[in-house]
């Protein structure tokens, strides 16, 4: 059963990723970082159970750990360079 | 010293979970625990803030219950056949002192029903509220009180404005 | 299948249900801020149910704790990332939608 749930979540992730990648604003595209941190981790956990593979639990742990750091770096860097005109508004407005 | 022993116990427990109880890994574990205690003593000296055990319990109960509420509430909104939202950006005046408490509050509020933290001001926190009727000030203040209890922080009196 | 296994299995299904609701919210909500709510809350609760369901089926207490630790880290990651996204979106001047009625609703 866990492998079916993992497949279901993978389908969920693909639909969601496809949607946010089209997303009207840059901020929408950043939502992909959140998707990997939750749905991606859930898939790894379910596969760990389904395949009785302890290594996948470690993978999920590292994934969750890196999601915070990678997500933050991604949000800061990837978002900075694209629209130079808007980058002055980067600092909080007040 | 007592605080450091407490931390060592915490890190040892963490290692035990990470190694999934495997006894043969304790050599590496011991080194890791010592390094972790040293690093934590350096980054977060034991005198500055103390976690209160009863505060931790209260925080966990509050947090778990509120995140279930938050998830269910937003899921219901998402699944409602006639989707109707009235979002707004609100400023929440902070009564916690600057530092770890504010960060923890911002993170907590992002996971609680109807609010996502969206930046600190001078002495306030901007919140995106999913539906303005859903989120009342009392819930936010309750979260603030629980965070203060966890870290043993004093809340500034609400009447006091400016220096 | 023992009773605890059955409860664990039920929690896994509930978790998957929350992920589905989160994805539906992502597709239906009007702007990036509202979509953050769908991902930061609903998906995290889904992950919590899945971690808890698997923890009930785990062979040892230590493994169960490790599963919950994964959830804790994921929560921290979500809170941090959603804060950064929301703050930057506001700083960039992306206006939050103020009102959204149902499709064809006059509001």
Short description:
The complex is a heterotrimer of chains A (94), B (163) and C (107). Chain A has 94 residues and is mainly α.
Structure characterization notes:
The complex is a heterotrimer of chains A (94), B (163) and C (107). With 94 residues, chain A is mainly alpha-helical. Chain A has one domain (2-81). Chain A is 74% helix and 0% strand. Chain A is flat, with a radius of gyration of 16 Å. Residues 83-94 of chain A have low confidence and may be disordered. Chain B folds into two domains: 2-43; 53-151, no CATH class. Helix content of chain B is 55%, strand content 11%. Chain B has five helices and three strands. Chain B has a three-stranded antiparallel β-sheet with strand order 1-3-2. The longest helix of chain B is centred in the middle third of the chain and has 27 residues, at 53-79. Chain C has one domain (3-91). Chain C contains three helices and no strands. The longest helix of chain C is centred in the last third of the chain and has 31 residues, at 61-91. Chain C is elongated and about 55 Å long. Classes of the chains: A mainly alpha (94), B mainly alpha (163), C mainly alpha (107).
Number of helical stretches of at least 4 residues of chain C: 3
The major beta sheet of chain C can be summarized as: none
Please give the oligomerization state of what you see: heterotrimer
- Rounded to the nearest angstrom, the distance between the terminal CA atoms of chain B is 37 Å
* Unreliable parts of chain B: none
Overall strand count of chain B? 3
| Residue share in helix of chain C | over 70%
- Please write the string of helix (H) and strand (E) elements of chain B: HHHEHEEH
Sheet having the most strands of chain B: 3 strands, antiparallel
The total count of helices of chain B amounts to 5
């Amino acid at each position: 059963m866990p492998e079916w749930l993992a497949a279901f979540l993978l389908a969920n992730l693909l639909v969601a990723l496809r949607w946010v990648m089209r997303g009207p604003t840059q901020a929408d595209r950043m939502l992909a970082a959140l998707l990997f941190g939750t749905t991606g981790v859930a898939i790894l956990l379910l596969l760990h159970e389904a395949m009785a593979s302890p290594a996948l639990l470690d993978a999920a742990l590292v994934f969750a750990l890196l999601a915070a750091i990678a997500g933050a770096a991604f949000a800061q860097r990837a978002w900075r360079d694209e629209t130079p005109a808007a980058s002055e508004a980067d600092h909080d407005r007040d | 010293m007592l605080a450091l022993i407490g931390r060592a116990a915490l890190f040892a427990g963490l290692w035990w979970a990470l190694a999934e109880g495997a006894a043969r890994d304790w050599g590496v574990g011991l080194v890791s625990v010592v390094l972790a205690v040293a690093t934590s003593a350096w980054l977060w000296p034991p005198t500055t803030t103390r976690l209160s055990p009863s505060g931790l319990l209260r925080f966990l109960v509050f947090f778990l219950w509120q995140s279930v509420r938050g998830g269910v509430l937003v899921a219901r909104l998402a699944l409602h056949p006639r989707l109707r939202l009235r979002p707004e950006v609100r400023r929440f005046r902070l009564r916690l002192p600057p530092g770890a408490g504010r960060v923890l509050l911002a993170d907590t509020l992002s996971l609680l029903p109807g609010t996502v933290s969206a930046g600190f001001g001078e002495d306030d926190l901007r919140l995106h509220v999913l539906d303005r009727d859903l989120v009342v000030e009392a819930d936010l203040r309750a979260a603030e009180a629980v965070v203060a209890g966890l870290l043993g922080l004093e809340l500034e009196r609400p009447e006091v404005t400016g220096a | 299948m023992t009773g605890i296994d059955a409860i664990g299995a039920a929690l896994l299904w509930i978790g998957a249900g929350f992920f589905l609701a989160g994805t539906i919210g992502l597709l239906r909500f009007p702007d990036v801020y509202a979509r953050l709510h769908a991902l930061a809350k609903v998906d995290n609760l889904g992950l919590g149910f899945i971690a808890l369901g698997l923890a009930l089926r785990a062979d040892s207490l230590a493994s169960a704790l490790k599963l919950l630790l994964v959830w804790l880290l994921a929560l921290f990651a979500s809170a941090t990332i959603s804060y950064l996204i929301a703050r930057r979106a506001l700083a960039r001047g992306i206006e939050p939608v103020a009102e959204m009625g149902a499709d064809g609703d006059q509001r």
